[in-house]
C-alpha cells in the first residue's frame, strides 16, 4: 500500500492506495475534504450512504460521525483545523460562526482542478520536507477560499454558477433559469426545454457535470436561499419554507436536517445566539 501523508499547520494531506474498509465510526474536531480522484468512494454517515464517482467530493464537518466503506484505487483526503477555516471565514466577512457544510455529494470544476494539480505536483516533484510544508500551507489557504466560495454550507447566500458559463452553455442557461425562478414548481420537461435537450439527455448530462440531478440542485438552491431568511427575517419557519419554494414544511425540515444535521428552527436559534 502506497501512502503519502504531509502534516502542516493548517491541517493534513493524505493520499493512500487501496485503503481497507473502516469498521468503526470516526469523529473529531476537523473539517474533512474527501475527493474521488480515479475511482468510486463509498462513505456512510448517520444520515447518508454517500457514493462518490470520479471528480466528486464530500465534506465532513467537525464532530460528525462517518465511516469509510469502500474506495477504489486512491483515497484523497484533506483535513483542515476548524480554527483555520472559521478564522478565514470571519476575516473575509463570510461568516462569524462555525460553518456547517452540506453533507451531500458535490462537484465543482475549480475544486477538481485544485485537487488534481496538488496530487500531481506532490507525486511528481521531488520536494524536501520544508518545500512540501511550504507548498501545502499555500495550497490549504487556496482550498479554504474555494470551499468558502464554491461549496454549499450554512454560510452561503447563493450558489455560484459562472464556472459553467464557458464550459457548458446549456447547463449554465438552465442553472441561471432555476436561480431566477426558484420558487416555481419546475418539471423535468420544463428544465429540458430551457436547456434545449431531451429530458433524459439533460438528466444524464446534468448529473455528470454537477454531481446531482437537476431537481436535487434546485432543492439545494432553495435551501441556501432560505438561510438568509432564517438569519435576518422575522418570518415563521412555515412562511420561509413556502417563500423558498418548498412544497411543504415537512419537506423543508427533512431536507435541512438531512443536509446539516439540525432543523431550520435549531439553526435560527443557534445563529442568533
From TrEMBL:
Keywords: Activator, Cytoplasm, DNA-binding, Transcription, Transcription regulation
Domain of life: Bacteria
InterPro entries the record matches: AraC_XylS_family_regulators, Homeodomain-like_sf, HTH-like, HTH_AraC, HTH_AraC-typ_CS, Tscrpt_reg_AraC-type_HTH
Pfam families on file: HTH_18 (PF12833)
Domain HTH araC/xylS-type: 172-270
SUPFAM superfamilies with a match to the protein in the record: Homeodomain-like, Regulatory protein AraC
Protein's name in the database: AraC-like DNA-binding protein
Organism of provenance: Shouchella xiaoxiensis
Amino acid at each position: 500500500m502506497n501512502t503519502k501523508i504531509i502534516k502542516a499547520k493548517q491541517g493534513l494531506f493524505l493520499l493512500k492506495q487501496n485503503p481497507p474498509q473502516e469498521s468503526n465510526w470516526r469523529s473529531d474536531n476537523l473539517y474533512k475534504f474527501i475527493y474521488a480522484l480515479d475511482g468510486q468512494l463509498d462513505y456512510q454517515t448517520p444520515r447518508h450512504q454517500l457514493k462518490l464517482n470520479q471528480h466528486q467530493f464530500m465534506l465532513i464537518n467537525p464532530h460528525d460521525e462517518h465511516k469509510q466503506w469502500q474506495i477504489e484505487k486512491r483515497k484523497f483526503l484533506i483535513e483542515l483545523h476548524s480554527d483555520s477555516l472559521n478564522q478565514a471565514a470571519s476575516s473575509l466577512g463570510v461568516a462569524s460562526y462555525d460553518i456547517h457544510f452540506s453533507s451531500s455529494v458535490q462537484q465543482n470544476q475549480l475544486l477538481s482542478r485544485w485537487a488534481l494539480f496538488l496530487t500531481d505536483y506532490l507525486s511528481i516533484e521531488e520536494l524536501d520536507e520544508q518545500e512540501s510544508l511550504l507548498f501545502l500551507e499555500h495550497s490549504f489557504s487556496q482550498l479554504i477560499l474555494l470551499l468558502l466560495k464554491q461549496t454549499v454550507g450554512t454560510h452561503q447566500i447563493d450558489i455560484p454558477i459562472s464556472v459553467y458559463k464557458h464550459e457548458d452553455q446549456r447547463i449554465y442557461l438552465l442553472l441561471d433559469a432555476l436561480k431566477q425562478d426558484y420558487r416555481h414548481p419546475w418539471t423535468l420537461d420544463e428544465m429540458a426545454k430551457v436547456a434545449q435537450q431531451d429530458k433524459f439527455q439533460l438528466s444524464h448530462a446534468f448529473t455528470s457535470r454537477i454531481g446531482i440531478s437537476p431537481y436535487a440542485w434546485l432543492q439545494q438552491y432553495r435551501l441556501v436561499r432560505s438561510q438568509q431568511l432564517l438569519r435576518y427575517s422575522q418570518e415563521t419557519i412555515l412562511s420561509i419554507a413556502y417563500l423558498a419554494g418548498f412544497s411543504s414544511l415537512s419537506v423543508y425540515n427533512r431536507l435541512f436536517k438531512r443536509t446539516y444535521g439540525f432543523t431550520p428552527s435549531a439553526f435560527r436559534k443557534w445563529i442568533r445566539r
